[in-house]
Design brief:
Distance between the termini: 36 Å
CATH class: Alpha Beta
CATH architecture: 4-Layer Sandwich
Order of helices and strands: EHEEHEHHEEEEEEHEHEHEE
Amino acid sequence: MQGVPDMSVTLRFIGTGAAEPVPAPGCDCPGCAYARTDATARRMQSGLALVVGADQYVVDCGPAAVAAPQWLQTARVRGVFVSHLHPDHALGLYSIRWAQHETPIPVFLPPEGGDTGARDVEHERVHLENWLGLEPSRLDFFSSVALDEVSVLTLELRHGDTPTQGFLFEAGGARVAYLLDGKGLPPRTAAALRDRGRLDGAVIDATHRPGTRDSRHNNLDEAIEIGLEIGARRVFLTHIGHHNLPKPELEGYVRERTAPIVDQEFVCSHDGLTIALAGSEAEPVAATR
């Protein structure tokens, strides 16, 4: 109908890898070896676009945004939400700088704090003040933000000593949770997700293969359990590390593990995956597995 704004809601996965790309340089693990034979198994570091009508809201912005910045041209960037300042989630802010034009793009970061003196390279942070020309805002956990027709609630995640926030986005009648990087769900975060009603989508950290123990990231089974706990209609497993199962085994494992579940769909995300959650192009959740 003429004059009615487009409120379609689409998720586009820019990068679905963990801190390292897949294949990782010089690595011959099964996941990397397979990815060298199948381009669809290759993964860049984290990046997601929530596309609402003619606009997009970037959620994490890893090196994929530097390597392939053309994705920024597909819709106007109206806001950027960064879970934490590890380079695999924030280095692509350099490309965001060039998308600003005359009007600065709002960039939202987690609270300050954590172990800034850690020697582990994974705890090195992107420093914004000198080279990006951005003016980011720090958000407290469980803060609310409204941009245009999109409302956002920040969530607290457990990622070692690094302050890391998840997000609950509401737009066009769709609710989407973004839960990277983190281990499990803190009780207050789980309660906040339940209180908002059933989610249309949940994007969940599934870094490791089944059986792996890690205090900062989920393995595949733990990610599936989080999806079951919050009951989202679609659960998107992402942040998949190179030591996880190779793509065919990964997809087969998730398919078998979730086969008895009839009211949820579990998706192994891949770079470039695009899913419409609301609007005329929205795809129905599979009724059977």
